[in-house]
Automatic annotation (TrEMBL):
Keyword Repeat in annotation: yes
Assigned keywords, A-Z: Repeat
Organism, as annotated: Aquilegia coerulea
UniProt-listed PANTHER family: PENTATRICOPEPTIDE REPEAT-CONTAINING PROTEIN GUN1, CHLOROPLASTIC (PTHR47936:SF1), PPR_LONG DOMAIN-CONTAINING PROTEIN (PTHR47936)
A Pfam family hit: PPR_2
Family recorded in the similarity comment: Belongs to the PPR family. P subfamily.
GO biological process: chloroplast-nucleus signaling pathway; mitochondria-nucleus signaling pathway
InterPro entries given in the database record: PPR_rpt, TPR-like_helical_dom_sf
PPR repeats, residue ranges: 247-281, 282-316, 317-351, 352-386, 387-421, 422-456, 457-491, 492-526, 527-561, 562-596, 597-631, 632-666, 667-701
GO annotations of cellular component type: chloroplast
Protein name (database record): Pentacotripeptide-repeat region of PRORP domain-containing protein
Length: 743
């Protein structure tokens, strides 16, 4: 199942935090206290304002208006000015403003009255802006913004005229340079980045350098868009040449922009350069580059930076840890990721529900459901609400383990919490039911999905068709795929591979080969997965010669076999007892530089364990570790079970301790073998602890083990436990066995 991309949500969250310093000046309160523009020696002077001369008649009218306004007391302005409406012209507005310019609230009331009747000329608007800004009133920015949001004029023309009028009216109507910051910020906010840069250059001619906060805002908005990142880098390089002094927020923005372009090394260079420029990096600076390395999976470099920031007395924050936890979970190092969570909590940093969901998802993908549930419960104890992604992760883990009863319970719990399942949730459940052959339930969910207004996607239909193929219902599968095509969804290579896999699982290898031929007719070429699936089917049916023929055909077509391809062959050799061929294949892989994984070694070790040849098993295990291949849950279960059956209990217990430390769990057969081995060695206390642990995890022990512990508890006089185990034995060992036989 493809999970949600937690990295996208953290990256966006980080981005908002990184740029909080540069974007906060959009709030009016900050505007009045932020770093202001600076002035240099100008190449030109601001012009003197020369209003049009009024005649006697105009002067008298303006005087009457001014007198009426001043004497109005509580009377509404529109009523006072009603008699003058028909006589007022644009020039009159300016002349009235000259009379009332020292009363900012009155200017705003008069301006609003004018706007309701006529669209004020640019000169009037700019005069009002200067008056309001110079009086430190909060409306200056808003007046500029409203004009540009509502302007239907040609942008280039209106920009030029607005700038001309703003400069022309500046000297005599306000002379507060922050007005230019406001105008610049509005241009950036409405997306007129080219005009903002032109304005920066224009106002520079008058000796005004805009504030670093305004410049940061431009870089922040540019770097929001991948197409604007290069321009943001240009701004970062060019603006200091004309007097802009970058601050920490500036460097943080540009490092984030570089990381978005996957230029993490360049971002690191900027981080190292900051101090030489007299600007000390903060926790956000380091977290930005750490996140960049984490997205590339370069955990070692990220951890080096974490150590460096600590040496400088900087405490990692939530987002520093988030990035590391995400990359560890993606690398299946979920136990290490949880250690980071514990460190985070010990430092007083509260993890959010996304971090818990990431870890739960990681444990579910490793099929380690006990730890997933442990974190799920811890999350709720911390008053963090699981969301639909959290529940979907649990559902995925349960479906992957084939526990559909519990998966459906979790689904209903999710609904009961008022959370809405999406296409991913439904498809996960549908796929789970199809894999265990419960197609009735799968199609019921498909119908429920449609009733919810959700559209099944290619993955949904592929899961259903795969389930039908495994049941041999090829005609129904074909009908379903026709329905899918009728909805505009195209069969892709993944769909074909899934169908071929379904046919192989049901024993219809001939049909699977035919489908591969149909695939090519449809213009889709079989890939490595297609061939590997068919080779697996031939290996499992003992037809190793045919499997080899497919491998040759695959190589002739220029397709590169993967480690999975070789694992299929390895499993085929091992199933047929051809262990020497399996070892030769492993040696050949190492010679050719094909890196085996844990599954490669597990196949061989399993067969040697079955033959109780623990000497060769140990040799293979050591070879695996020497190659830097990490053992997985299956490795430990195979070795523990093998040593237990060979009565090597010291080795079995050693591997069990190591397994637990790495966050893996024993499966039922391993528990049974380990408990029996301990009992044979008279280590009843350890055996009992494992038996209780097994029961706590909901796993069912062998009837023989139940009988042993029934006798032990009876002999110790613990009748309550004896009766409890007796009931459990009847329910789990006898009733369930009878039920399974009748199925």
């Amino acid at each position: 199942m493809k999970r949600y991309a937690f990295t996208f949500s953290f990256s966006n969250h980080l981005f908002s935090i990184f740029h909080s310093t540069s974007s906060s000046f959009l709030t009016i309160k900050h505007l009045t206290t932020t770093t202001t523009t600076t002035t240099l020696n100008p190449t030109r002077l601001f012009p003197n304002y020369s209003p049009k001369k009024s005649n006697i008649k105009d002067t008298e009218l303006v005087h009457h208006i001014f007198t009426s306004i001043k004497q109005r007391r509580s009377e509404p302005l529109q009523r006072v000015l009603k008699p003058f409406e028909s006589k007022l012209k644009s020039d009159h507005f300016i002349w009235v403003l000259m009379k009332i310019k020292y009363d900012c609230n009155l200017v705003l009331d008069f301006f609003n009255w004018v706007c309701l009747r006529k669209n004020p000329c640019l000169e009037t608007r700019c005069i009002v802006i200067h008056i309001v800004v110079s009086s430190k009133h909060s409306m200056g920015y808003q007046i500029i913004k409203e004009f540009w949001e509502k302007s239907n004029l040609n942008i280039e023309t209106s920009f030029r005229h607005f700038v001309e009028r703003l400069i022309y009216t500046y000297k005599d109507w306000g002379s507060d340079p922050i007005v230019f910051d406001f105008f610049f910020q509005v241009l950036v906010e409405v997306g007129l980045f080219n005009e903002a840069r032109k304005f920066f250059g224009k106002i520079l001619n008058y000796g005004v350098v805009l504030s670093v906060d305004s410049c940061n805002f431009l870089m922040s908005r540019l770097s929001n868009d991948l197409n604007g990142v290069d321009i943001a880098l240009e701004v970062f390089k060019e603006f200091p040449e004309v007097g802009v002094c970058w601050n920490v927020a500036s460097y943080n923005i540009i490092m984030h922009a570089l990381c978005k372009l996957d230029k993490v090394e360049e971002a690191l260079f900027v981080l190292l350069e900051m101090e030489s420029k007299g600007c000390a990096p903060d926790v956000v600076s380091y977290s930005t580059v750490i996140d960049g390395y984490c997205r590339f999976g370069e955990l070692d470099k990220a951890m080096d930076l974490v150590r460096e920031m600590r040496l400088k007395g900087l405490k990692p924050n939530q987002f520093t840890y988030n990035s590391i936890i995400i990359v560890l979970c993606k690398s299946c190092k979920v136990v290490e990721a949880e250690k980071i969570l514990r460190e985070m909590i010990s430092l007083g940093i509260s993890p959010d529900n996304v971090i818990y969901t990431t870890l739960i998802d990681g444990f579910c993908k490793l099929m380690n459901l006990p730890d997933a549930y442990r974190l799920f419960n811890e999350m709720q104890r911390r008053k963090l609400l699981p969301d639909s992604v959290t529940y979907t992760s649990l559902i995925y883990g349960l479906c992957h383990c084939g526990n559909m009863i519990e998966a459906y319970k979790v689904f209903n719990e999710m609904l009961g919490k008022g959370l809405t399942p999406d296409e991913v949730t439904y498809t996960t459940l549908i796929d789970g039911y199809c894999k265990v052959g419960e197609l009735k339930e799968a199609f019921a969910l498909h119908n429920q999905m449609l009733e919810m207004g959700l559209t099944p996607n290619v993955v949904t239909y592929t899961a259903l068709a795969d389930g039908l193929c495994k049941r041999g219902e090829l005609e129904t599968a074909n009908e379903l795929l026709h329905e899918m095509c009728g909805k505009g969804l195209e069969l892709n290579i993944i769909t074909y591979n899934s169908l071929i896999n379904g046919l192989c699982k049901s024993g219809n290898i001939g049909q699977a080969i035919k489908l591969m031929e149909d695939m090519e007719v449809a213009g889709l070429h079989p890939d490595t997965v297609t061939y590997t699936t068919l080779m697996d089917a031939y290996c499992k049916s003992g037809e190793m010669v045919r499997a080899h023929e497919l491998l040759r055909e695959m190589l002739d077509k220029g397709l590169e076999p993967t480690v999975v391809t070789f694992n299929v062959l390895m499993n085929g050799f091992c199933m047929l007892g051809m262990l020497e061929d399996g070892e030769r294949l492993l040696s050949w892989m190492l010679e050719k530089g094909v890196r085996p994984n844990a599954t490669t070694y597990n196949s061989l070790m399993k067969q040697y364990c079955i033959g109780k040849n623990m000497k060769v098993t140990t040799k293979i295990y050591r070879g695996m570790c020497a190659q830097g291949v990490l053992p997985n849950s299956n490795t430990y279960n195979i070795i523990i079970e093998g040593h237990s059956k060979a009565r090597n209990m010291k080795e079995a217990c050693y591997f069990h301790s190591e397994m637990v430390e790495k966050g893996f769990s024993l499966r039922t057969s391993s528990y049974n073998a380990l408990i029996k081995g301990l009992l044979k060695k008279k280590r009843a206390t350890e055996a009992r602890q494992l038996f209780e642990q097994m029961r706590t995890e909901g796993l069912v022990a062998d009837q023989e083990i139940y009988s042993i512990f029934l006798d032990l508890n009876y002999n110790e006089g613990d009748m309550e436990m004896t009766l409890e185990l007796c009931d459990e034995t009847i329910e789990k060992c006898l009733v369930d066995k009878t039920h399974n036989e009748h199925k």
